[in-house]
Amino acid sequence: MKTKLPVLCCGPATQLLAPRDADRLAARFKALADPTRVAMVNRLAQGECCVCDLNAAFDLSQPTISHHLKVLRDAGLVESTRRGTWAYYRLEQDAVRQLRQTLGG
What we know:
By secondary structure, this protein is of the alpha+beta class. The chain is about 50% helix and about 15% strand. The protein has helices at about 20-30, 35-45, 50-55, 60-75, 95-100; strands at about 50, 80-85, 85-90. A three-stranded antiparallel sheet has the order 1-3-2. Strand 2 (about 80-85) and strand 3 (about 85-90) form a beta hairpin.
């Protein structure tokens, strides 16, 4: 007698996330739960950006901009390098790719 396999609504290609991966992704999505940080990520999607340009682009104080960048950096969404007195930020492409894959994109 042949055993019927259950019908999966998610499809056979859908893999479950390991708890550690789910935690990391949740932290990244949580970092994006702020409109200013979403706008910063959108701006950084165009390429590397000096923190001075981010300060000029948003009607926020420099400490507030730094706070948002720290949240994004701590979540692994952006990375930075120092050149002289300025910090340059760019998206962490692997993190963005993981978010995109999680959303099915």
